[in-house]
Specification:
22% strand, 28% helix, 9 helices
């Protein structure tokens, strides 16, 4: 499969610390882990590591950080033909403090007020799947216009007008809990299944033609399958460093969809890959091998499964998504309030729970 990943990259410096630093003190760090970062670039890196034909379209600076990122991607056979070099802006740098005591991280992104943007928008390949982090709006719209029948997957990790617009034209929206809450206007309470159902229904009302997956941090992921709203639990593991777990989830999800997995199996694989990653320090250094993920899956379900073969039939999707507009003619609407009205059920671990309607005296709020 040929997969095109479009988006930003950065140079990440991970610094393990015994505890979060106290202001005004001096610390001596005994180790650091350096690697390229950024969701789209990390997705491409995982796909290359897992044996897929992956292309990365993004911008790096004309500095040592940019050269390191390019070489690192090429080491796992990611195609960098569509990467651009900015001679005006440097490569963004992130410093991540990882608390070894409790497995939490604190991230400092060193970026300028203006980020370098892709300018060429030229694609001399025909991808089977397109992944985007939504941060290269023009390049993404051009790719969706050029390959309208190809499967497309969007990482919706924040709320802005460009990303809300892109949501309408992709096959899969894989969004964060924060995005789901912001767009729905509701809060998720893990102790109240009705809030999960209501949030998901609001998203589905707004984007009825998309497949939607909501990542729920260590709780797993919420999705709809065979008319039911479900949660696929994450795996239980000791958290050493949660950095990059979300990117690894997205990368594994893209791999599975590209190889024809059904939605539930794709989410299961993605949860396993992300769960295994948090037990290791660093970003790309924590990406598990494909054999590790398959081995965990086989053990969990007591089955024997070989890795997918390289040759796969071309993936196509039904022409159910709206026509993608010319970027220069787009008028972005002000986000409105979605309406509910989809009857559904909620399932955890195979047990179906009926929807609990909101109380009449709470004005629709949870």
């Amino acid at each position: 499969m040929t997969i095109l990943s479009i988006g930003r990259t950065s140079f990440d410096i991970f610094c393990p610390v015994d505890e979060y630093p106290v202001e005004g003190t001096k610390y001596l760090l005994s180790e650091k882990i350096e690697s390229g970062g950024g969701t789209a670039a990390n997705v491409a890196y995982l796909l290359g590591k897992w044996g897929e034909t992956a292309y990365f379209a993004g911008v790096v600076g004309s500095d040592d950080y940019g050269n390191h990122i390019r070489k690192e991607l090429e080491q796992v056979m990611v195609k960098t033909d569509m990467m651009e070099t900015s001679y005006e802006y440097g490569t963004p740098v992130s410093v991540i403090l990882v608390n070894k005591k409790n497995g939490t991280r604190t991230r400092f992104d060193v970026v300028g007020a203006t980020q370098p943007q892709l300018r060429k928008y030229e694609y001399n390949i025909t991808p089977d799947v397109i992944f985007t982090d939504g941060k290269e709006y023009g390049a993404t719209i051009n790719a969706l216009n050029k390959f309208p029948k190809k499967i497309s997957i969007l990482d919706a990790g924040r709320v802005d007008r460009d990303l809300l617009e892109l949501c309408k034209y992709v096959t899969y929206i894989v969004c964060s809990k924060g995005f789901a809450e912001a767009v729905s206007g509701l809060k998720i309470d893990y102790n109240n299944s009705a809030t999960l159902v209501q949030v998901y229904k609001k998203l589905k009302d707004r984007y009825p033609n998309n497949n939607i997956v909501v990542t729920l941090e260590n709780m797993g992921a919420m999705y709809s399958f065979d008319g039911e709203i479900k949660i696929m639990p994450g795996i239980k593991t000791k958290v050493v460093d949660p950095s990059c777990a979300g990117d690894i989830f997205h990368g594994a999800f893209v791999y599975c969809i590209a190889n024809g997995f059904d939605l539930e199996k794709a989410i299961t694989y993605s949860n396993i890959a992300a769960g295994l990653s948090v037990g290791k320090m660093g970003g790309r250094t924590s990406i598990p091998n494909l054999k590790e993920v398959i081995g965990y899956y086989n053990q969990k379900f007591n089955i024997v499964e070989e890795p997918p073969k390289e040759e796969k039939k071309e993936i196509t999707v039904e022409e159910q998504l709206p026509e993608i507009p010319d970027p220069s003619k787009i008028v972005i609407p002000t986000p409105g309030v979605a309406q509910t009205g989809i009857e559904s059920t909620f399932s955890i671990g195979g047990a179906t729970i009926p929807v609990i309607p909101p109380s009449n005296n709470n004005n629709g709020n949870v």
